[in-house]
Amino acid sequence: LVLILLGPPGAGKGTQARILEDAFGLVQLSTGDLLRAAVAEGTPAGLAAKAVMEAGGLVSDEIVLAILKDRMAGPDVSAGVILDGFPRTAVQAAALDDLLAETGQRVDAAVSLDVDDEAMIARVAGRYSCALCGEGYHDSFKIPAVAGVCDKCGGTEFRRRPDDTAETARARLETYHSQTAPLIDHYDRLGVLARVDAMGSIADVRAALARVVGAVA
Ligand code: AP5
Ligand code: ZN
């Protein structure tokens, strides 16, 4: 099963992908996470990506495709993947269709998480995560049950992404509208597009997504 989550920064792609992983036994594949790991490791791809990511632009298709293909070859992805933040350009979408065709697969569903731009700035600017397990939190929308302690792993250290300032979030939104939103039409033409209202609660969005995945799984 190949599921794509499309949506602007803060739409909840990562939040929902992690929920779907647990519920459907799928593997989340986030190009943003893979790029951040490359930046942290200081690989050549990471060195090239760092400044672009901090400015809210898109890393080159060449780098992203190399990282994605490498990850798609992993043994754990055979049950199915949730692509979170990929594809983001027409070139990436075409490359994905070709890559899947090599193994007789195709995109089963592409879900557009529809949201309001201004609300997205607030979501992104309040976000942080557990430094130990990566669980995501938000200053207003999702706080740990015990202050300062991760619900999932008990960790007490948290971090914020360098691109999660209101200013960079605006640049990322513009990048989304100009380069990624046109892919919604691409998947509509392929007959695999689903739209989910992602302004509701995390639980409501989760329920709507579960219906979409349940219909194609
Ligand atoms: P990436 O890491 O993909 O970031 P993004 O697309 O900007 O998405 P985010 O991670 O910011 O948001 P999300 O939709 O996952 O929301 P989340 O669930 O965290 O990419 C980062 C950068 O890497 C890009 O800018 C680019 O430079 C580069 N890059 C990555 N992929 C690339 C590619 N394919 N090609 C080229 N460059 C690439 O939720 C946000 C917050 O809101 C959280 O705090 C959460 O708790 C909260 N929240 C979630 N849902 C709800 C809800 N329903 N109600 C209230 N709060 C909610
Ligand atoms: Zn944790």
Estimate what percentage of residues fall within beta strands: 15-25%
What is the approximate shape?
globular
Strand neighbour order, sheet with most strands: 2-3-1-4-8
Largest β sheet strand count, sense and barrel closure? 5 strands, parallel
Number of helices: 9
Global structural class: alpha/beta
Distance between the termini: 7 Å
User: What is the string of SSEs from the N terminus onward?
Assistant: EHEHHHEHEHEEEHHEH
Bound compounds: BIS(adenosine)-5'-pentaphosphate, zinc ion
- Spans of at least 5 consecutive residues whose pLDDT stays below 50 are none
| Portion in helices | 40-55%
Extended strand count:
8
The protein's oligomeric status is single chain
Q: What is the rounded Rg?
A: 17 Å
Average of the residue pLDDT scores:
95
What does it look like?
It catalyses: AMP + ATP = 2 ADP. Zn(2+) binds at residues 130, 133, 150, 153. Belongs to the adenylate kinase family. By secondary structure, this protein is α/β, with parallel strands linked by helices. It has helices at 13-24, 31-41, 44-55, 61-72, 90-101, 117-125, 166-180, 183-189, 202-216, and strands at residues 2-6, 27-30, 81-84, 109-114, 127-130, 136-138, 158-159, 193-197. Strand 5 and strand 6 (136-138) form a beta hairpin. The radius of gyration is 17 Å and the shape is globular. The mean pLDDT is 95. The chain binds BIS(adenosine)-5'-pentaphosphate (AP5) and zinc ion. BIS(adenosine)-5'-pentaphosphate (AP5) is lined by residues 7, 9-15, 30-32, 35, 52-53, 56-59, 64, 85-86, 88, 92, 123-124, 127, 136, 138, 141-142, 172, 200-202, 205.
